[in-house]
Amino acid sequence: MTDPVTALREILGPKGWLSGTDAEPYQRDWLNRYGVAPLGVARPANTAEVAAVVKACRMAGLAVIPQGGNTGLCGGAVADRASAVIVSLSRMTAIGEPDPESGSIAVDAGVVLAALHDMLEPHGLMFPMHLGAEGSARIGGLIGTNAGGSQAFRYGMMQDLVLGLEIVTPDGAMWDGLRAVQKDNAGYQLRKLFCGAEGTLGIVTRAVLRLYPTPKQQASALLVMSDFAAAVSFGTYLRGEAGEFLAGLEFFSDVGLTLALKHLPDLAYQLETRGDVYLLVELASGSARVPLDEILASALEWGMEEGLVVDGALANSGAQRAQFWRLREEQPEGQRLEGEQLKHDISVPPGAIARFIETGAEICDDILPGVRINPFGHLGDGNIHYNVSPPEGRADFDGKAGQFAEALAALATEMGGSFAAEHGLGRAKIAMAERNRSSVERELMARLKGAFDPQGTMNPGVLVRIAE
Amino acid sequence: MTDPVTALREILGPKGWLSGTDAEPYQRDWLNRYGVAPLGVARPANTAEVAAVVKACRMAGLAVIPQGGNTGLCGGAVADRASAVIVSLSRMTAIGEPDPESGSIAVDAGVVLAALHDMLEPHGLMFPMHLGAEGSARIGGLIGTNAGGSQAFRYGMMQDLVLGLEIVTPDGAMWDGLRAVQKDNAGYQLRKLFCGAEGTLGIVTRAVLRLYPTPKQQASALLVMSDFAAAVSFGTYLRGEAGEFLAGLEFFSDVGLTLALKHLPDLAYQLETRGDVYLLVELASGSARVPLDEILASALEWGMEEGLVVDGALANSGAQRAQFWRLREEQPEGQRLEGEQLKHDISVPPGAIARFIETGAEICDDILPGVRINPFGHLGDGNIHYNVSPPEGRADFDGKAGQFAEALAALATEMGGSFAAEHGLGRAKIAMAERNRSSVERELMARLKGAFDPQGTMNPGVLVRIAE
After folding, report:
1. How far is B77 from B85, CA to CA, in rounded Å?
2. Pick from B100, B187, B245: which is nearest to A236 by CB?
3. Beta strands B63-67 and B84-88: pairing type?
4. With contact defined as beta carbons under 8 Å apart, do B257 and B277 qualify?
5. CB contact under 8 A, B444 and A100
6. Is the ipTM of this complex over 0.90?
7. What is the pLDDT at residue B400?
């Protein structure tokens, strides 16, 4: 039998195989918590090479770890053993012609999200997926983790935006499911199943994505809300009065704003009032005939009359709109620069956001008094990045990180929500899933994994734990 | 061992078990093409009874056939053998309180769609699923077949509207996945997988559905288009200029209008011009400040200037709007009353609708000259109900029904679409799927079925064929 590295080199050519120091940039995850040195990194140039690599690895008993932009937060795209090959899709970056009449486009798995945005702009089309990592995250990884982001409440998550898929299966076969229609009920919804499967059932090599026309006008406002309950009530009002225009409904706290302003000196907060909670509201319309500013101003007025909105400003320019968004987008960076932090990716029914944040704060304060709660996220779909910083003047969490994570996961579960809203399970949250999800659910998932990948070749140890 | 009927009677009580003539109303499918007399019909009162029935059937080697409103068009909800029990969910009809802040509601699988619509109306909320059978179709069946309908292009199919599910598995276990959040990436997307599984992986017993606020105003128009290509171009224009308002974009042909007017004497067509193609456009908005009529009128004007729209009328009252919609909704009934017919549930990328209809017409005319093509459906998602009537003066298809179906399925497949867009495969289209989908795809589906239902208890012979 040929030595596996020789076989892989032969399949991939000199540009397609990295080992030693060349492989190091692929080794660790984004948060530098997971990843050991793999046998090497395969960088296939096309689907046939992906399939050949999977076959060769399977034959040699090597684990296959698909990797996109490696921006995931749960360690799902790096190796847990030396007998593994990372398959990076970074050389497969072809983008097809957008089809404006059908609202779709075919792209390779290695396309960077921001590159797709840029490519579409002159066509007057958009792919409505926006998240912090869009400058590095690749389509295949976004599909594998079923990414959500700030517009998911309106346009859906990746699973709602994927029309068709091409997959290399754990057998090294190629499934051509590159259809370009929303309605396809000819059997099980495989295209949905592969979204969020984190590379454990196969490798996404290509996709047909749904596109939308770019809006012709926008109206944005930054609001100071009286409290989280007020933010929820105002969100409900907006969905009723301006629901079809809602393109952004993001919240952050004064804890987060304080940290961002402290650590990012070029960041500006231009309102006169501060409060506990801030809401970034963005409306967008494809019609030039809609009085969008007036609709937003009128909603603000209602919110002020009701005592929900304390202060607010409509963006009067694109520059000001960008400033408002930066306040929200720099929340993770501000907190990171403050030092140690805990990230929790929670979702609850949107009506329960305030209750979760308040109950969660009590629980956290019981675990470590004075701990700083810094929740921010997506009001429209109840997705709370419930981050925590140590008490003022303290550098760590007194070894209690796991206690916070478990208590908040249990609370989200109890409230009909999720402890893994948009980041997935990866390696980081498998044990948490085992504790918070029923044995029936875990059993169904184990059977799925066993049916598609009986040898356990694909991303072992990620999403679901199977006896090896 | 207890006789299975005795065991089932004991589980279900006297109201819960039907046999003999009492079971007959459940025996045949909607189009009266499928169904043999089962051992009996179980009508469980709750999830525990469903689970007990599944366990008892499994132990006795009986097939379990889940049935909702039995309005499916592919024969997926009736028995193919005497050793089967139909499980009708028709007694499980509880509807929970709607949650306007979270935009969700929990309902039993047996709830009739129209009953849910009626219940929500006074709350100012809507469940955006509309289809011809809504007066009989039940939520569980709609989930099992992943129903689409006329608003799918905007709000999605059932898989996009289901937040959480409760399932009785083929083992008779209960999976409580009744979470109420859009973002839940804690493992494989089981909730999506059960949508469209046609009861072959388990029985849907309860669901959490997504709700939207009811719009405050609507504007509707009936348009005569110069041809199908014009309808497609106009649809693209509308998505760009009024996309966020689009709540209906339905088309039908002059063949269909002629049949409907012929057979339904109370139906009125009030425009002066006739054409080959008609478009029903509906805009809706949650904001009273949007000049919706003006936006629609302006789009019409553009369409006329471009030569796409030949004639058109805006509905000036709710009564006229209802008349416009009836013209579209009576398409199936008009054709049914004409006599023999063939139904084909096609989807293609929306930009390819005109090409499909025209190429399909040539193919059909080659098979049986003079055959009447009557396509109608959903322009926004490319879903064409490509129905066919025999040539004028002829009562049948000369034994060529299968040839039409196969030729049109092949054409849809070739064009990146589906031959089972929103009705599913059921028993009717399994062979078609075997011919039009790759062996890799069929193999993945067979593995899925085998993993969830190794004994083949659930709805055998539906969706996927497994050696028994």
Report:
1. 11
2. B100
3. parallel
4. no
5. no
6. yes
7. 96
